[in-house]
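User: Fold this; tokens only.

Assistant: Input:
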Amino acid sequence: MSSQTKIKKDKEIIAEYETQVKEIRNQLVEQFKCLEQQSEARIQLLQDLQEFFRRKAEIQLEYSRSLEKLAERFSSKIRGPRKEQHLLSSVNCWYLVLSQTRRESRDHATLNDIYINNVIVRLAQISEDVIRLFKKSKEIGIQMHEELVKVTNELYTVMKTYHMYHTESISAESKLKEAEKQEEKQFSKSGDLNVNLLRHEDRPQRRSSVRKIEKMKEKRQAKYSENKLKCTKARNDYLLNLAATNAVVAKYYIHDVSDMIECCDLGYHASLARTLRTYLSAEYNLETSRHEGLDIIENAVDNLDPRSDKHKIMDMYNQVFCPPMRFEFLPHMGDEVCQVSAQQPVQTELLMRYHQLQSRLATLKIENEEVRKTLDATMQTLQDMLTVEDFDVSDAFQHSRSTESIKSVASESYMSKLNIAKRRSNQQETEVFYFTKFKEYLNGSNLIIKLQAKHDLLKQTLGKEKEPNVELQGEDGMLVPAIRILVNPFLWWWRAVYVTLIYMGCNNKAYSEFLDLRWKSTI
């Protein structure tokens, strides 16, 4: 009966862990779906914009009436399948472009040339960039997901090892107690019988029986000590891996997910802003009566904000991007020890391990800081490429020039084949280098956060740092209010955020943004 109870308890513990891991894996799958949906929505948006400007270039004599129909057509499409996208800054610009379309007027030939040879080409390039960047970001995301699966599998392995050794320790303890009872029973019988009453030939047999019991007790005592030591080491490994796993999971949801979304957004808003500014430059050279509407669009373009759109996406899918609850220590068969044991004979081993971690962390932080500096410099280079001010086409509206000269101006500008090939080659080479360094930085920061979690836990265990225990009773013996008890489970998250942001070099704004997301998920 006791064996069945033990097996049931083990299965319950494993089932609880597997359920938690399964939830995280499902969440990771849903994250990719969300990012893929956003990528598809952007591509659809860009395709709509390309079709819009192509149709607009074809409209000439019945310009006003045809443009009104066109605007209504796209407005009705937006009210349908992409209604949820209205919060994004890029979609807001699209709304305003449609509104301004109803006010467009003449100069059809110039607009036709600019729309076909400039705007549509840019939008096609942005579509290519969106697809390419999403694929690269997905590759890194898959790698990060594999890392999460790896650490959870490692945690599962050490947990099973801990369960096995703890079971053996309990069994050895039971056998030792049984031997002690037999010894006490033997001594009790010896005391009741008068030795003088025993026959001479029975006395050696009595002594032999006592010696056998003593040897059995010594053997079981040694076995119990050995199993207890193995159990202690296994529990220590379990707790250390538990801390490392929680740190990696927290770091992924707090920092890596945000970075992955930024990689998907890389250059999208800047490129779209440049495209729309080209459109604005053409439109601003038309009648002054149109300036009021165009000023509204310009303001929306100025407010194209990748950070804001990223936060809106994360808010829209709050349950998917919200960090999960941390892994808790799952005691086995009534084990009351839930901390790393630093008592002999494992204290020396832990101390050596602590110093090794300290030395390793110092080296890794220096190396990762250099990678981060390179990453920042590369990002600045990309930003310079993506924010070049090449959208001014005012020269094309000098009416003293012929059509041939207008085409010459357009061809000699940004959209010339030589400039396109050179700029895109430089951009893609820089992107490849950036993603290489980004992957290297993620790998380094993951290793640092895992080692740092183990280092901090060992530091606390070995007496390097002491923290007050959170009790459920106050100093006067009264129970703590319920709200304080409810908040305590989230204290770990604040510590995790603090440690993660310090070692990842984040600022206070990133910290406050995470707290805002985490708090919304708990309401």
